[in-house]
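Structure in, sequence out. Go:
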């Protein structure tokens, strides 16, 4: 290979920089190869931050001493389970309302999988693009339950009072709190919305939808070690 030959040509670089954030963030597609309506991005941001919202409610009620830690944990988990079930129900409804998603003509095969013509913020094509749903009914139940359990245990694991007692500094505790919830949101998104396709893969090869379980598994390992230590 000559010194002037790039490792990735122009269209592969474009594909990489669209796919890489999606892989890192667990599924949301914030960079598309065409102009999409703003509500497509807003809906994804809302879904991505939903676990943090519910965990924040439990954390706030616990900090205000309105709920005990156990009750705040259960509340956050139940809210997340309800939201995950709602997303799956909406995806199922959209799948029944629409047939094949209408796509725009694209000469570049690397962007053909994403080109969708959106008509409404909650239209079937928008819902199927953001939350395509699970292939198997068992996964719908399993992933929904795991989403609630993960949010509940995650809320319990990163209570601000516990972090402050551990690190002895409010500033450090806030940094750890924010980074922890970003990690939890990434894992939750893979469970409740769709599977994050790896950067080097054009289309997901996960037939039985096992990949969404890997990120929550890593988090559960850390939580299990903390619980065993306690």
């Amino acid at each position: 290979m000559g010194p002037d030959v790039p490792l990735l040509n122009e269209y592969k670089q474009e594909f990489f920089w669209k796919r890489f954030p999606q892989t890192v963030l667990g599924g949301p597609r914030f960079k598309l190869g065409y102009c999409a309506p703003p509500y497509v991005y807003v809906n994804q941001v809302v879904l991505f931050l939903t676990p943090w919202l519910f965990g924040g409610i439990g954390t706030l009620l616990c900090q205000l001493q309105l709920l005990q830690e156990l009750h705040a944990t259960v509340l956050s988990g139940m809210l997340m389970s309800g939201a995950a079930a709602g997303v799956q129900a909406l995806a199922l409804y959209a799948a029944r309302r629409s047939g094949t998603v209408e796509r725009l003509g694209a000469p570049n095969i690397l962007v053909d999988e994403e080109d969708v013509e959106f008509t409404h913020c909650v239209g079937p094509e928008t819902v199927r693009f953001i939350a395509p749903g699970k292939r198997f009914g068992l996964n719908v139940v399993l992933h929904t339950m795991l989403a609630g359990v993960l949010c509940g245990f995650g809320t319990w694991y990163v209570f601000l009072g516990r972090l402050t007692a551990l690190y002895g500094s409010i500033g450090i505790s806030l940094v750890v709190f924010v980074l922890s919830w970003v990690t939890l949101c990434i894992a939750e998104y893979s469970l409740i919305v769709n599977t994050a396709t790896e950067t080097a893969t054009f289309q997901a090869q996960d037939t039985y939808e096992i990949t969404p379980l890997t990120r929550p598994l890593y988090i559960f390992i850390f939580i299990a070690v903390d619980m065993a230590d306690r």
